[in-house]
Amino acid sequence: MLPVEEALAAVLSAAAAASAARPTAEAVPLHDALGLVLAEDVRAPDPLPPFRASIKDGYAVVASDGPGEYPVITESRAGDDALGVVVTPGTVAYVTTGGPIPDGADAVVQVEDTEQLAGAPDGSKRVRILVRPTQGQDIRNVGCDIEKDSVVLKSGEHIGPAEIGLLATVGVTTVKVYRRPTIAVFSTGDELVQPVTASLSRGQVIPIISQCLRPSPLSAFIFTEMCTCLQIRDSNRAMLLAAAIQHKCKVVDLGIAKDTEESLKEHMDAALSSDADIILTSGGVSMGDRDLVKPCLANMGKIHFEKIRMKPGKPLTFAEIVTKDTSKPSKKVLAFGLPGNPVSCVVCFNLFVVPAIRSLSGWSNPHLPRVHARLLHSLRGDPHRQEFHRAVIRWVPDDGSGRPGYVAESTGQQASSRLLSMKSANALLEVPLVGQMLEAGTSMQAILISDMTSSPFDKLPTASNPLPSHLFPPAKSVSTDLSQVPASQNTEVKVAILTVSDTVSSGAGPDRRYFIKHLFLHDCC
């Protein structure tokens, strides 16, 4: 059995070679760039701000004038260019936040440090300045935020909501990014049926619905057949397709392959002809007489490894296949034979497939983030295989050491068939090969596989309830019956976004709605 580190190194080496041989970049609209990786440097075509701008609402003044009463000669609002307006000694101009500073002015006095005076008979306005400003006060100079032609984003940077806003700021509407990998997914097993199957067979002869390799969205199921086997709904394929989409991949759903050489070969050929960069299969990689994925991969390509010293996920198989379609340039395709047990399947996806996806997608660091967390309870390490224990991680004011930090709570019974152990899990604890009990309070490395926004802890540790001497009470079970969820928590949230700005409406400044929009998309509203 291969150690996890060596197996991952083999995957990343193959991914790097495959990435070097494939077209790396594509242009996408700005609104489609979230979560992708820049494939070129982005430079600012203009300075920001493009003019001297006011930091606050107030009055543009000549600083040497000092406190006193002054006539207001004009109003310079955001969106106005203030052309032809000159503030001379003894005069002031009203300015709004972001508005241009008129020529002649060298400071801004905020509204809070002024008093409005009664207007003159001719209708002109006057104001009393209450403080002595300093030269340059509350003025943003040209290019102080971004200099013209400066690199604002570098090739290889990950595009988040803030980067979307920055791209909009410098006028980028089409972004050159690393190509998203295409992933073809199919499950294997005579026992598998579609998730839509209402009643599962327990061995009696019943008709079942099967799926074609290339279903259309409206007619996915095209023929029936008789089945005498026990049935299981195919959860792995749905899970893998969702996980691939979550990691910004394009997906090809190839359905379910039977436990025959012909069916497996047919599905593998379909995957290769789909122009996939990665092929994911689930099931058929153990030692049974109908576990045919390994021989199929060996016949079609080169197997790098087929057993890992890990728990769960021991039978994971990884291979490279070179396409042989003479009508297209050949390319290397990464093929992962994932275990059929659901937990083993998703754990292997996070540990090996995600780094491969990120490598193909241009990430400089393809690994999932890691943190150290203290155990809320004891657990036993396996003496033979490194275990990846499903857990919930949360940041707390006191992790038991008297300092803030992360704590980890197990998701319960860790059988590789028990998909409930992945429910709410946001981390995999890297349990060392010790073969002994690890006590509560032990610090352990954890791989983060999702965010930490919905940890189901009941309480937080406090000074009077530290770890490890006092542990948290068990988390309360959470009902998964959606009928019990209040309607207000089980609805789609619609957010209307409106930019209110004279600067933007006049075309003098960038519209940053893209930034706000992607903040909401990032939080799945």
What features would you highlight for this structure?
six-stranded mixed sheet, 8 helices, Molybdenum Cofactor Biosythetic Enzyme, Chain A, 525 residues, single chain, Molybdopterin biosynthesis moeA protein, domain 3, elongated, alpha+beta, Molybdopterin biosynthesis moea protein, domain 2
CATH class of the largest domain: Alpha Beta
- Put simply, the count of helices is 8
Level of helix content? 10-25%
- Main sheet strand line-up: 7-4-6-5-9-8
Shape descriptor reads elongated
Percent in strands: 25-35%
In short:
18% of the residues lie in helices and 29% in strands. The protein is α+β, with helices and mostly antiparallel strands and 525 residues long.
Written account of the structure:
The protein is α+β, with helices and mostly antiparallel strands. It folds into four domains: 4-23 and 180-360, MoaB/Mog-like domain (Molybdenum Cofactor Biosythetic Enzyme, Chain A); 27-47 and 148-178 and 484-525, Molybdopterin biosynthesis moea protein, domain 2 (Alpha-Beta Complex); 53-140, Beta Complex (Molybdopterin biosynthesis moeA protein, domain 3), CATH 2.170.190; 370-472, Beta-clip (Beta Barrel). It is 18% helix and 29% strand. The chain has eight helices and 30 strands. It has helices at 4-21, 161-169, 236-246, 261-273, 293-300, 342-360, 502-505, 513-522, and strands at residues 25-29, 42-43, 53-54, 58-61, 68-76, 92-95, 107-110, 114-117, 125-129, 139-140, 151-153, 174-178, 182-188, 192-193, 206-216, 219-227, 232-233, 250-257, 278-282, 302-305, 310-311, 317-322, 332-338, 370-375, 379-380, 386-396, 405-410, 427-431, 437-438, 443-448. The strands form nine sheets. The protein has a six-stranded mixed β-sheet, with no helix packed on it. The chain is elongated. It starts with a helix and ends with a helix.
